[in-house]
Amino acid sequence: MSLSKSEEELMNIIWKQKKAFMKDLLDAFPEPKPATTTIATLLKRMIDKGYVSYKSFGRSREYYPLIKKQDYFSKQVKGLIKNFFNDSPGQFASFFTQATDLSKDELEELRKIIDSEIKKKKS
């Protein structure tokens, strides 16, 4: 189950802070800050989806992520490739390199990354 755009924004704050109380989360938002009730609703949804949990300290809750940022985005990219590029990483790479108008240096950097991954897979 994916996160909404608002949930992803909040999740990014939680990933960055690692652990946070409601006040910490509110402080991390730019102005105009969302209402406390809005954040509480988002947190409840994210808890129900299994992305966030909390520890209680009296009447306060300290929230923390249950999923790593890299794992979440890896899953999102795989879904994107499956749903929009016929499950073809090659089609995705072709679109990505053309649509983002990468420079020669950026393309060469991508080649180095890919070559490095190929060497790891051979080992």
Task: Give an overview of the whole structure.
The chain has 123 residues and is mostly helical. The protein folds into 2 domains: 5-65, Orthogonal Bundle (Arc Repressor Mutant, subunit A), CATH 1.10.10.10; 85-122. 64% of the residues lie in helices and 11% in strands. The chain contains 6 helices and 3 strands. The protein has helices spanning 5-17, 22-28, 36-48, 69-84, 89-99, 104-122; strands at 20-21, 52-57, 60-65. The chain has a 3-stranded antiparallel β-sheet. Strand 2 (52-57) and strand 3 form a beta hairpin. It is elongated and about 55 Å long.
**What is the helix fraction of residues, given as a range?**
55-70%
CATH superfamily grouping of the largest domain: Winged helix-like DNA-binding domain superfamily/Winged helix DNA-binding domain
**What would the average pLDDT be, to the nearest integer?**
93
Tell me the distance between the termini: 35 Å
Q: Give the oligomeric state.
A: single chain
The CATH class label of the largest domain is: Mainly Alpha
- Arrangement of strands in the largest sheet: 1-3-2
Global Rg: 19 Å
Number of strands: 3
Architecture per CATH nomenclature, i.e. the level-2 architecture of the largest domain: Orthogonal Bundle
